[in-house]
């Protein structure tokens, strides 16, 4: 039987109390954004779930929309379902019709009631519908690990039957936590940091720093390819491509070598903050991992974030490299990130960078530069792409 509804179930949203309706509205918007216009004639919030009614045009093509819906943050799972009245005979016949389209030897019926106005007993429905399936199809009941499960959800004066529960990514709907600016290098770490930011409800814009013409444009092309992966979770991502070469040249000429990388990072934070003000973003996200490289010691992180007046979030701060590699392989960005390129961080790198820099020493070196002018020039030269 062709499904005529889709049930959308969430986990964490259900704990939001008086704010739950806001989270549900965002989730509805995000579901609609990843499927063609007119896929659903309505999506309603009913007793702790969303219920989408498929249009006549969309019913035959729903399977083609599954991969997009699977990536909507906030969803625990969703299920294409057939709706009928809360009548045991009709429910039984519908269950037989649905199961008859599957190949299986063993099955179980799992009925669940929501609300006090459901006239049917879940246990009796399990037994009676199961008996009819045995009689009609000659299959065996198996309560643990059956080949097929027919779910019957009873709510809103209706019964919804389905056999396919499709997992979602969990988390919170994108947008509920506000807009954030994610610094993305094209390396392995920062795309995963962007992913986890979206999973916690952040709507991301990306900032990439490059050193063209001292390097080639490979890092820019690579980041655009990574954005293509991230767009599966958030359509229409804004990418800011920022030239850093002039700043790096000035830092190299006028400051002590060992503080060079930290000053690059401080300029990146300043520029990203200025862009975040233009975008009305509330925080900056980096892919930093505590202790991974010289610039990511606690002392150096503190020296860098001192220039920011907005929060700096580090979703990966406690991860190890193996965890990051494994998860970026699942995400689909690993093979892109390991492609060779000349990124800005590899230009003018000191042989012996400071690992525990004192803020006053960094600031003393930085006082030799016209910081405000360099930042404004970089922002003015930034290219903006809507991907």
Provide an overview of this structure.
The chain has helices spanning 20-33, 62-69, 88-99, 122-137, 189-199, 218-230, 245-254, 260-279, 298-305, 321-331, 334-337, 359-366, 371-380; strands at residues 5-9, 40-45, 50-54, 77-85, 106-113, 140-141, 148-155, 158-162, 166-167, 179-183, 203-210, 238-243, 284-285, 312-313, 383-386. The two termini are 39 Å apart. The model has no long low-confidence stretch (mean pLDDT 94). The protein is an alpha/beta fold and 387 residues long. It is elongated, with a radius of gyration of 27 Å. It contains 13 helices and 15 strands. It folds into two domains: 5-167, VC0802-like; 179-386, 3-Layer(aba) Sandwich (Rossmann fold). The strands form two sheets. Strands 1, 2, 3, 4, 5, 6, 7, 8 and 9 form a nine-stranded mixed sheet that branches. Strands 14-13-10-11-12-15 form a six-stranded mixed sheet, with helices on both faces. Strand 13, helix 9 and strand 14 form a beta-alpha-beta unit.
